[in-house]
Specification:
This protein has 395 residues and is of the alpha/beta class. It is 47% helix and 9% strand. Helix 5 links the parallel strand 3 and strand 4 (135-139). The protein binds 2,5-dideoxy-2,5-imino-D-glucitol and manganese (II) ion (2 copies).
């Protein structure tokens, strides 16, 4: 019997090489799993039903690889992609592991380090284009400080802008058809990262020379770490046509970045996020990649890692079905309609100012006590959402 929750190419599920390839080390313990090669990762993800794989430059090509070694590694990887029918929709640059980035990359106080970071990002973008990527993610894991004595944050923001403007100009001069997706995170691991949330990034993008090619890559864990709503961050990005990519995982509020299996923590938050992406509530469906930037528990062996990958995709598919059922539920539709009815079309009055609309606004008979008296039945509506999530809602 076919699994109704098996991943399909339409889902566009992707994983980074660094996710299922994570050997399970953490700040308090060494690796617990052997490494698996990029080719084995491509084969394993294809078998699990993924659409594609993403990478940092050094997930595939070692930092100190020679040009000939790089070309050999890339050719071998491309052969595996072809054999498995896997895509590479997104590429990014590791601007955080090597000690050269200890004081930042694009925001380092030393302009030589910023120049080195720029050059490394260029070469990573070239690799991404060679592999077919159309989205380049920028996550500034070292773009921050453990002490603000280090520099004025205004300098850091200016340097970050200079680097992104340069890379935007450069990539367009190569006639690359790329979009840049900026990924926010409030801290990692101790220092305060500049531009810490998707909201900060959306403003920052408007100050860039190539703002039209720049959008955001919100991550569940990174919005949840400071207690923010991922659903609202993604909705704001979608409303601005700036949701260029998304990192799906799970997180407990107030903890360091956990990158847990998708939906394995805040299940209701995951439900409403999937509902937003799938467009079952009425807005258009998000047609981009559904990227799982997550890692298996440290307890797992390699079989457990593939359980983790399958779990990410399966949970998404289950929640997508539940979101569709929720929005097709007659009682849900009735409560939403009652709360969104605008029989007298008052909404038009507030859409745009005119002397006529303002006169009509002043003439409205609005009784705040009568308006206040009305209940909205959100308790029943949320209970219906919970009952769909818990699988007990009939009809
Ligand atoms: C961490 O959440 C970051 C890095 O893993 C990577 O640069 C980016 C890509 O999605 N996410
Ligand atoms: Mn993360
Ligand atoms: Mn991420």
């Amino acid at each position: 019997m076919t699994d109704p929750f098996a991943p399909t190419p339409r889902d566009r599920f992707t994983f980074g090489l660094w996710t299922v390839g994570n050997p399970g080390a953490d700040p308090f313990g060494s690796r617990v799993r052997p490494s698996i090669s990029p080719v084995e990762i491509v084969q394993g993800l294809a078998k699990a039903g993924a659409y594609g794989v993403n990478l940092h430059d050094n997930d595939l090509v070692p930092f100190d690889a020679s040009a000939s070694e790089r070309d050999r590694i890339v050719a071998e990887f491309q052969a595996a992609l072809k054999d498995c029918g896997m895509k590479v929709p997104m590429a990014t640059t590791n601007l955080f592991s090597h000690p050269v980035f200890r004081d930042g990359a694009f925001t380092a106080s030393d302009p030589k380090v910023r120049a080195f970071a720029l050059r490394k990002a260029k070469h990573a973008i070239e690799l991404g284009v060679e592999l077919g990527a159309s989205t380049i993610v920028f996550w500034g894991g070292r773009e921050g400080v453990e002490s603000d004595a280090a520099r004025d944050a205004r300098d850091a923001i200016r340097w970050f802008r200079e680097c992104l403007d340069y890379l935007g100009d450069w990539s367009q001069a190569q006639d690359y058809q790329l979009r840049f997706a900026l990924e926010a995170k409030p801290n990692e691991p101790r220092g305060d990262i500049y531009l810490p949330t998707t909201g900060h990034m959306l403003h920052f993008i408007e100050t860039l020379r190539n703002k039209d090619m720049c959008g955001v890559n919100p991550e569940v864990a990174h919005e949840n770490m400071p207690g923010l709503s991922m659903v609202h961050a993604v909705a704001q990005a979608m409303e601005a046509d700036k949701l260029f990519h998304i990192d799906l995982n799970a997180q407990r509020i107030g903890r360091y970045d956990q990158d847990l299996r998708f939906a394995s923590e805040d299940l209701k938050g995951a439900f409403f996020l999937v509902r937003l992406l799938e467009g079952t509530g009425g807005y258009p469906r998000y047609e981009g990649m559904r990227h799982f930037d997550a890692h298996a528990y440290r307890t797992e062996d390699i079989d457990g890692v593939w359980d983790f990958a399958r779990g990410c995709m399966r949970s998404y598919r289950i929640l997508a079905e539940k979101a569709a059922a929720f929005d097709q539920d007659a009682e849900v539709q009735e409560i939403l309609a009652a709360n969104h009815a605008d029989a007298e079309d008052i909404g038009a009055l507030t859409a745009a100012y005119s002397t006529e609309s303002d006169a009509a606004l002043e003439a409205l008979d609005l009784d705040p006590d009568a308006l206040a008296a009305r209940g909205h039945r959100y308790e029943r509506l949320d209970q219906l959402a919970m009952e769909h999530i818990m699988g007990v809602r009939q009809g």
